[in-house]
Amino acid sequence: MTLNKSSRLGLYAVVMMAGRPDARVSASMVAEAFDVSEDHVAKVLQQLVRARIVTGVRGVGGGYRLAVSPRRLTMLDVVEALEGPVRPFCYGCEQRGGEPGAKCRQQASCAIRGVLEEIGHYAWTTLQSVTIATLAAKTGGERAVG
To answer: Which fold has domain 5-139?
Structure first.
Protein backbone atom coordinates (compact mmCIF):
# COMPACT_ATOMS: atom_id res chain seq x y z
CA MET A 1 0.00 0.00 0.00
CA THR A 2 1.30 3.42 -0.93
CA LEU A 3 -0.09 6.52 0.73
CA ASN A 4 -0.68 9.54 -1.46
CA LYS A 5 1.29 12.72 -0.90
CA SER A 6 -1.56 14.41 0.95
CA SER A 7 -1.77 11.56 3.45
CA ARG A 8 1.96 11.65 4.05
CA LEU A 9 1.83 15.43 4.56
CA GLY A 10 -1.13 15.06 6.91
CA LEU A 11 0.74 12.48 8.95
CA TYR A 12 3.88 14.64 9.05
CA ALA A 13 1.82 17.62 10.21
CA VAL A 14 -0.11 15.83 12.97
CA VAL A 15 3.08 14.20 14.26
CA MET A 16 4.69 17.64 14.35
CA MET A 17 1.66 18.96 16.27
CA ALA A 18 1.79 16.05 18.70
CA GLY A 19 5.44 16.84 19.36
CA ARG A 20 4.55 20.47 20.14
CA PRO A 21 1.34 20.24 22.16
CA ASP A 22 1.64 23.76 23.60
CA ALA A 23 2.39 25.49 20.30
CA ARG A 24 0.54 26.18 17.09
CA VAL A 25 2.04 24.72 13.93
CA SER A 26 1.71 26.75 10.74
CA ALA A 27 1.48 25.49 7.19
CA SER A 28 4.77 27.24 6.45
CA MET A 29 6.48 25.37 9.32
CA VAL A 30 5.35 22.02 7.92
CA ALA A 31 6.24 23.02 4.36
CA GLU A 32 9.71 24.14 5.38
CA ALA A 33 10.38 21.10 7.57
CA PHE A 34 9.49 18.66 4.81
CA ASP A 35 10.48 20.75 1.76
CA VAL A 36 7.03 20.80 0.18
CA SER A 37 4.63 23.42 -1.16
CA GLU A 38 3.00 25.59 1.51
CA ASP A 39 -0.17 25.74 -0.59
CA HIS A 40 -0.42 21.94 -0.65
CA VAL A 41 0.15 21.76 3.11
CA ALA A 42 -2.54 24.41 3.69
CA LYS A 43 -5.06 22.38 1.66
CA VAL A 44 -4.22 19.23 3.61
CA LEU A 45 -4.56 21.05 6.92
CA GLN A 46 -7.96 22.40 5.88
CA GLN A 47 -9.12 18.85 5.14
CA LEU A 48 -7.95 17.84 8.62
CA VAL A 49 -9.88 20.79 10.10
CA ARG A 50 -13.04 19.65 8.28
CA ALA A 51 -12.46 16.13 9.64
CA ARG A 52 -12.13 17.66 13.15
CA ILE A 53 -8.67 16.19 13.61
CA VAL A 54 -7.04 19.61 13.96
CA THR A 55 -8.24 23.09 14.82
CA GLY A 56 -7.02 26.20 13.09
CA VAL A 57 -6.59 29.81 14.18
CA ARG A 58 -6.16 32.50 11.54
CA GLY A 59 -4.07 35.63 11.71
CA VAL A 60 -0.84 36.64 13.38
CA GLY A 61 0.25 33.91 15.75
CA GLY A 62 -2.24 31.56 14.14
CA GLY A 63 -1.68 27.99 13.17
CA TYR A 64 -2.97 24.52 13.87
CA ARG A 65 -3.25 22.22 16.87
CA LEU A 66 -4.54 18.72 17.32
CA ALA A 67 -8.23 18.62 18.22
CA VAL A 68 -7.93 14.97 19.26
CA SER A 69 -5.60 13.36 21.78
CA PRO A 70 -2.59 11.90 19.92
CA ARG A 71 -3.07 8.78 22.05
CA ARG A 72 -6.53 8.25 20.51
CA LEU A 73 -5.69 9.42 16.99
CA THR A 74 -4.42 6.69 14.66
CA MET A 75 -2.68 6.72 11.32
CA LEU A 76 -5.88 5.26 9.88
CA ASP A 77 -7.91 8.25 11.14
CA VAL A 78 -5.62 10.68 9.32
CA VAL A 79 -5.37 8.63 6.13
CA GLU A 80 -9.13 8.12 5.92
CA ALA A 81 -9.73 11.84 6.49
CA LEU A 82 -7.55 12.55 3.45
CA GLU A 83 -8.13 9.57 1.16
CA GLY A 84 -11.51 8.21 2.18
CA PRO A 85 -12.19 4.76 3.57
CA VAL A 86 -9.33 2.28 3.48
CA ARG A 87 -10.88 -1.10 2.85
CA PRO A 88 -8.97 -4.33 3.42
CA PHE A 89 -10.25 -6.24 0.40
CA CYS A 90 -9.70 -6.61 -3.32
CA TYR A 91 -10.92 -3.64 -5.37
CA GLY A 92 -10.98 -5.40 -8.73
CA CYS A 93 -14.69 -6.25 -8.84
CA GLU A 94 -15.76 -2.81 -7.65
CA GLN A 95 -13.80 -1.22 -10.47
CA ARG A 96 -15.77 -3.41 -12.88
CA GLY A 97 -19.09 -2.25 -11.44
CA GLY A 98 -19.55 -4.70 -8.54
CA GLU A 99 -20.83 -3.76 -5.11
CA PRO A 100 -18.37 -2.83 -2.34
CA GLY A 101 -17.32 -5.99 -0.54
CA ALA A 102 -18.93 -8.22 -3.16
CA LYS A 103 -17.43 -11.58 -3.99
CA CYS A 104 -15.19 -11.48 -7.03
CA ARG A 105 -17.18 -12.59 -10.06
CA GLN A 106 -14.05 -14.08 -11.59
CA GLN A 107 -12.59 -15.92 -8.62
CA ALA A 108 -11.22 -18.76 -10.74
CA SER A 109 -9.16 -16.33 -12.81
CA CYS A 110 -8.40 -13.95 -9.93
CA ALA A 111 -5.43 -15.89 -8.57
CA ILE A 112 -4.07 -12.94 -6.65
CA ARG A 113 -7.30 -11.91 -4.93
CA GLY A 114 -6.52 -13.65 -1.63
CA VAL A 115 -3.02 -12.19 -1.49
CA LEU A 116 -4.32 -8.69 -2.19
CA GLU A 117 -6.95 -9.03 0.53
CA GLU A 118 -4.33 -10.23 3.00
CA ILE A 119 -2.03 -7.32 2.17
CA GLY A 120 -4.96 -4.90 2.50
CA HIS A 121 -5.92 -6.41 5.83
CA TYR A 122 -2.37 -6.07 7.20
CA ALA A 123 -2.11 -2.48 5.98
CA TRP A 124 -5.49 -1.57 7.51
CA THR A 125 -4.64 -3.29 10.81
CA THR A 126 -1.27 -1.56 11.01
CA LEU A 127 -2.70 1.88 10.23
CA GLN A 128 -5.41 1.32 12.84
CA SER A 129 -2.99 0.17 15.53
CA VAL A 130 -0.36 2.90 15.31
CA THR A 131 -1.22 6.08 17.20
CA ILE A 132 0.09 9.53 16.46
CA ALA A 133 1.50 9.60 20.00
CA THR A 134 3.59 6.53 19.19
CA LEU A 135 4.91 8.15 16.02
CA ALA A 136 5.66 11.42 17.80
CA ALA A 137 7.59 9.54 20.50
CA LYS A 138 9.63 7.72 17.85
CA THR A 139 10.38 10.82 15.81
CA GLY A 140 10.48 13.51 18.43
CA GLY A 141 7.61 15.13 16.49
CA GLU A 142 10.05 16.74 14.06
CA ARG A 143 10.93 14.15 11.44
CA ALA A 144 9.10 12.50 8.60
CA VAL A 145 6.90 9.56 9.43
CA GLY A 146 8.24 7.27 6.76
So the answer is: Arc Repressor Mutant, subunit A (1.10.10)
Give the count of alpha carbons within 13 A of 122, CB side only: 6
Task: Give the integer Cα–Cα distance in Å for 10 and 144.
Answer: 11
Q: How far is CA 9 from CA 40, 92, 101, in A?
A: 9, 28, 29
Percent of the chain with pLDDT over 90: 57
The answer to whether residues 17 and 64 touch, using CB atoms and an 8 Å cutoff, is yes
CA 31 – CA 6 distance, rounded (Å): 12
User: What's residue 100's pLDDT?
Assistant: 55
Q: How far apart are CA 107 and CA 116, in angstroms?
A: 13
Query: Rounded to two decimals, what is the model's pTM?
Result: 0.78
Query: Furthest-apart CA pair in the chain: how many Å?
Result: 61
State in Å, rounded, how far the first CA of the chain is from the last one.
Answer: 13
